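#onboarding

Welcome to the new folks! Below is a worked example of what a typical request in this channel looks like: someone posts a single protein sequence, and someone else replies with the predicted structure as tokens. Don't worry about understanding the tokens yet, we'll cover that in week two.

Example request:
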Amino acid sequence: MKKDLPLSNEQRGFTLFETVIAIFIFGIFATALMLGSQTALLSTNQIQTKQIAMWVAENQLIQLQQKARLNSFPALGESKNPVDMAGQTWLVKTNISETDDDDILRIEVSVFEEVDETLKSSLVVLVGFLGRH
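Example response:
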């Protein structure tokens, strides 16, 4: 039978208490890292959604400008149209109004994330002007 030799201080391992404390500290850091990653991911998603909504608004404004160049000046008033872009349906609300100058119209394009009749909060609002000449 082999006799166990006493361990010196240099060969001593961690106690159970020290191991539990180390795992606890690691768990806190891992949780903080996961929360930070989740926040960054959500922020990236929101930025992407707003960017696509801005493209939708810009496209709508450009379409109205192109129609005006073809002598098809848009009528005054408000319109709502669904638009498909990037695999999602967006609701575009366009409000065309007069300005102090009779030859210039003010165009306000609001984009909403989903086709929803409540229209509580738009993602982006783009304002442009359209001249007759």
